[in-house]
Amino acid sequence: MPRPHVLLSAAVSLDGCLDDTGEGRLLLSGAEDFDRVDAIRAASDAILVGAGTLRADRPRLLVNSQERRAGRVADGRPAYPLKVTVSGSGELDPGDPFWTTGGERLVYTTDRGAAVARARLGDAARVVALGAAVDWAALLDDLGGRGVRRLMVEGGARVHTQLLRLGLADELRLAVAPLVVGEPDAPRLFGPGAYPGGPRGRMRVLGSEPVGDVIVTRYAPTAPGTTDGVTAADRHWLRLACDLAADCPPSETAFSVGAVVVAADGTELARGHSREGGDPVVHAEEAALAKLPGDDPRLATATVYSSLEPCAHRASRPKPCARLIVDAGVRRVVTAWREPDTFVPGADGIGVLAQAGVVVAEVPELAAAAILPNRHLVTPTVS
Ligand SMILES: Nc1nc(O)c(N)c(N[C@@H]2O[C@H](COP(=O)(O)O)[C@@H](O)[C@H]2O)n1
Fold first, then answer.
1. What is the ipTM of this complex?
2. Which residues have CB under 8 Å from 217's CB, separation 6+?
């Protein structure tokens, strides 16, 4: 099951604070912005907050608009999204309104915390143990398995920080309020640490709009992952590679493939697709790499995204794409679809890459998109 789309939602002051240090909660948003948040909740399958936020703010996490709840029901969904919290200790207060209002509730915790949470909450929530520590990737896999396609995360700072640092957030929707808190101890949205792409990595701006007196901007992380684990940004770039494959001139004798080369900071360096520019035999990865100088220093930390595993054998050129990638000095490849035996039986481009020390991450959930423009070339059992 695919992981849900993870949307981090937050409001901050101009100096990046979530709150001030005074009594009660600092109201950063006005009525229009609260209504915007209500609309995102209504469009989500689940809403998640950390246990710290639950204790501090006692949120109910409801969809307040009756019309929006009715719309959900008309679409065959529950009136309220699933409410999710994450707690290492399981020390949760059953008196909080979170447990007695709105939709069904789910607690993710540790093996140790599960017994505590079950004893405290009884029937108020389902409790899922994730091992010795809370494993965020496992949590998202579990939510995907429960049919959650859109997850809204409403904080707090620790949860936002962890999801962004792990590369598990697809989108950040940030409301910036026109005030400066100025207090050194006020809580800030993101804590210190190593974020994907490092301090110079830039996110992509998806859009921006004024809502009352706040400005809401939507960002998408772009910096590739660094391991064989797949991040949200990896999925974005690989989806683009699959879209490029769909744009290839059709062929009965070769696959349609798309490829994108992305620098460690999230900058797109080059893209290509099969048979690009009227060359009937050029491959996607080859076309993309050919657009970069061979000594481009960014290649050593770049990731190549290819809808199909890079080829291991070629008749039409001296070097297969797996070799071109190794020779370019690229150390990481992300791909959606292992090559079927249509043209070259037993082609193992992933093996060639791995043997040369290149990290390969596979995203089987995007295989269907990679296969789509090639469906006439594969047997029905493969597709
Ligand atoms: N990775 C990749 N990118 C493309 O754009 C492709 N067309 C292919 N096809 C595979 O490459 C091998 C044959 O290449 P030639 O036809 O000899 O150039 C074979 O393994 C095809 O399946 N791969």
1. 0.82
2. 173, 174, 176, 205, 207, 208
